[in-house]
Amino acid sequence: MDNNPIWQSASANQLDLARVVVERTVMARVYHNALYLNEDGDVYRDQLFHGHINKLAKVVTPNHRDLRISKVYHYECSWSWAQTELAVISAYKTPRDKL
């Protein structure tokens, strides 16, 4: 894009947005083949992993004794926010979006 005359008048922001669109388009087309090489086996493992994470989320809390988080910090931590973000991470296709 940097050397293409069509993009010469584009701003840095427009170039960044165009790169994101290209990345998302490519990932949308190759996502299933790239991440689920074993098809249903990979999907099943993802579902199983998701189930384990859900079970852990019920046990691992700021009050968990092995974490040893001082009660002073219990209301400052963003546990529910982090759990919510992890629950929807599979909706994102590109590494940039996942971050």
Descriptive keywords:
59% helix, guanyl-nucleotide exchange factor activity, mainly alpha, 4 helices, DUF5601, VPS9, GTPase-activating protein and VPS9 domain-containing protein 1-like, 99 residues
Structure description:
It is a single chain. The chain has 99 residues and is an all-alpha fold. The chain has one domain. 59% of the residues lie in helices and 0% in strands. The protein has helices spanning 12-35, 40-59, 79-88, 95-98. It is flat and about 60 Å long. The chain starts with 11 loop residues before the first helix and ends with a helix. The relative contact order is 0.09. The model has no long low-confidence stretch (mean pLDDT 83). GO terms for molecular function: guanyl-nucleotide exchange factor activity; small GTPase binding. It comes from Temnothorax curvispinosus. It holds the Pfam family DUF5601. This is GTPase-activating protein and VPS9 domain-containing protein 1-like.
Please write out the topology.
Layout: H1 12-35, H2 40-59, H3 79-88, H4 95-98
In which range does the helix fraction lie?
55-70%
Round the mean pLDDT to the nearest integer and report it. 83
Major sheet, described briefly? none
The structural class is mainly alpha
What amount of the residues lies in strands? under 5%
Beta strand count: 0
Q: What best-fitting shape do the alpha-carbon axes yield?
A: flat
Order of helices and strands: HHHH
The termini sit apart by: 24 Å
Radius of gyration: 20 Å
GO biological process, one term: vesicle-mediated transport
InterPro entries: DUF5601, VPS9, Vps9-like, VPS9_dom_sf
GO molecular function: guanyl-nucleotide exchange factor activity; small GTPase binding
Domain VPS9: 43-99
